Amino acid sequence: MKRFFQMSLLALSVNAIAVTQAYSQDNNKNEFVPQWAKKAVWYQIFPERFRNGDPSNDPKVDDIKGADPIKQPVQWRIHPWGSDWYELQDYERVNKAANDEHEISTHLLRRRYGGDLQGVIDKLDYLKDLGINAIYLNPVFDSPSLHKYDAASYHHIDPNFGPDPVGDRKLMAQENPLDPKTWIWTKADELALELIDKAHQKGIRIIFDGVFNHMGINSFAFQDLAKNQENSDYKNWFTVISFKDERKGTEFDYQGWFGVKSLPEFKEDEHGLVTGPKQYVFAATKRWMNPKGKGREYGIDGWRLDVAYCIAHGFWKDWRQLVKSINPEAYLTAEIVDTPENVKPYMQGDEFDGEMNYNFAFTAAEFFFNPEKMAISPTEFDSKLAELRSLYPQGVAYVVQNLFGSHDSNRIGSHIVNRGIANFRDWQDYFTTSQAVINPDYKVSKPTSYDLQLQRLFTLLQMTYVGAPMLYYGDEVGMWGANDPDSRKPMIWSDIKYQAERYNPDGSVRSPDKVTINTSLKQTYKQLIAIRNANPALSIGSYKTMLADDTKNVFVFEREHHTGTFWVLFNNSTENQEISLSYLKSKKPDLLYGDADYTVLDKELVVNLVAKSGAIIRVN
Q1: Domain count, the chain
Q2: Which sign, positive or negative, has the C-alpha torsion 481, 482, 485, 487?
Q3: Do 315 and 344 lie in a common domain?
Q4: What is the pLDDT of residue 159?
Q5: What DSSP line would sit under 291-324, residue for residue?
Q6: What is the CATH classification number for the domain harbouring 171?
Q7: What is the Cα 247 distance to its own chain's centre?
Q8: N or C: less crowded end of the chain, CB within 10 Å?
Q9: 306 flagged as catalytic
């Protein structure tokens, strides 16, 4: 629900100063968050679509059994990395005719492009050069799907992400999943440890995606349950509605996550996961945080928790204690797409350190991207940001992941192209409205230069505001795409030739859009990340709103630290604007970023900003 705030600039200034005092980072003794996370610049990687580093491990058709769509294809092969996204390949046309599969989403969901962990290792230098120092990996555990939110296990990396899928599966079949002492380290598992080690050597931390609410129908637990029914060792792991019983005339039925039968839900009581799955999750957690008992420095640096709101608080409290006992500096971030009031209980120091900050994205979209009738003013923008900063205990606002696009939303460029189709904050409505495979009115075309200028404006906020910025892979090179599945296109690399995109979701043809790296946009990201990394004020400094001018549609804030003071200015107007700020400092201002010119006159800093642009000025 939209909230409107009527506040004078004077009152707003007083409120901002109060928030600044509350969030000064000079004293962090009372904080429960890991301090390194304040300086993180996150990069989210969807492994299957990031880079194919080892074609020898590419999935075969048998490897995708159990994933949606359940119906097996007549023909199948690895999809060409550089192909037109909506164009059906020959093998897909065969399936369309033979299986009567006319929905484009069926074919997009069945595709595999061959991305793997070797591909991530190969591109660590790319990420380092970009300025990234923290990676969030979407699920990498054993799973038949492209997204891997339907885990077959939590204690093994998917064999097709490693160098020996056949050998790994033979080894895995010898284990007793209930006995961690029998768990072996597959070659895919070892490659994950190599990735962690090589990332750490480059100063890059890694967190894994934990999907602890449900598993997939290929999971060892569910397979045993389906086979042995009430005699299964896992009969109490899942929410079973009925067992197969010929005498009673009942069929086997169970609860799937939000009704999705390929994702059987774990059973819960008032404390969260019941004993069986809870113990298994705890054992898998230990495995990846302290691999082989060698020490926490060899393990992952934390977790991102999928649909955290689907599991009762008691489980997260117990699990946090386990995680922090292994590594007190581990970072725990939750996916909770909800109102600020409903997010708050998870961030009190006994569950999570931060969250995927969708409310930040919603607020930014309403200010920078929404059409005039749907947009919020600078004072409303400032009030909503202040509400989010004051929502959490001390330190939390500095470690939340400030994102825009993700694997569960349309990409930022396509959001801008389609600005006005709905309000991003209305999550359920926007989720489906932004799916081009559902909404025929969604524009799948490439962002224009003006659209990318708006993206740059958001990126300036993302890299200078309170909280840790998070890029979704490909943001920096100008990738575009509607919501899932289109937000999961293969990454654009300079050594791969890409077909122009000319097909629409319905199979019709449009004017082609060239698919290539946008070097100018990439340079903007690289420059802003470098400025953030070089200046502690922009990550751990205090925050103060300096100006929220509704008439000019201008917004200015200050980030201050003993190492320097920075003013960040935004002209969100469609016209050039002159901004005047009181300037009593002796130091000459230094323009670090932006298309602006400025002068110091009569104790005022006068800055001229072109339309829809921003600037970073160092003033001390």
Answers
A1: 3
A2: positive
A3: yes
A4: 98
A5: GGGS-GGGS-SEEEETTGGGS-HHHHHHHHHHHH
A6: 3.20.20.80
A7: 49
A8: N
A9: yes
Q: Are 135 and 45 in contact (CB under 8 A)?
A: yes
Tell me the CATH number at 562.
2.60.40.1180
Q: Does any domain span residue 40?
A: no
Task: For tokens 């001229």, name the residue.
Answer: 608
Catalytic option among 31, 268, 306, 380: 306
Residue 253 domain boundaries: 220-265
| Both structure tokens of 69 | 């769509």
**C-alpha of 590 from chain center:** 34
Specify whether 235 is located in the same domain as 344.
no
Q: Are residues 136 and 184 in the same domain?
A: yes
pLDDT band at 22 (very low <50, low <70, confident <90, very high): very low
- How many residues make up the chain in this entry? 620
Across the chain, mean pLDDT equals: 94
Q: State how far the Cα of 506 lies from the Cα of 440, in Å rounded to an integer.
A: 8
Pairing of strands 613-618, 564-571: antiparallel
In the structure, what pLDDT confidence band is assigned to residue 385 with cuts at 50, 70 and 90?
very high
Closest CA to 111 of 139, 153, 69: 69
Q: Which of 10-14, 206-210, 353-357, 537-541 shows the lowest mean pLDDT across its residues?
A: 10-14
Stretch 575-593: mean pLDDT, rounded?
Answer: 95
Sheet holding 590-594, edge to edge: 542-549, 554-561, 564-571, 613-618, 590-594
**Of the residues 249, 265, 281, which one is the last residue of a structural domain?**
265
Q: Which residues contact 544 (CB under 8 A, 6 or more apart)?
A: 16, 17, 20, 557, 558, 560
Of the residues 268, 335, 366, 501, which is catalytic? 335
Note whether 330 and 181 are same-domain residues: yes
Tens of pLDDT, residues 283-332: 999 999 999 999 999 999 999 999 999 999 999 999 999 999 999 999 99
Q: 153 near 182, Cβ under 8 Å?
A: no
**Which residue, chain included where needed, has tokens 């004077």?**
10
Q: What single-letter DSSP state applies at residue 383?
A: H
Question: What global pTM score does this model have?
Answer: 0.94
Burial class (CB in 10 A: 0-12, 13-18, 19+), 521: buried
Q: Is 161 helix (H, G, I), strand (E, B) or coil?
A: helix
> 95 by DSSP, 3-state: which?
helix
Distance CA 71, CA 107 (A): 11
Residues 151 and 228 in one domain: no
Does residue 259 fall inside a structural domain?
A: yes
Is 335 in the active site?
Answer: yes
Q: How far apart are CA 220 and CA 583, in angstroms?
A: 66
- How does DSSP classify residue 364? H
Residue 193 and residue 340 in one domain:
yes
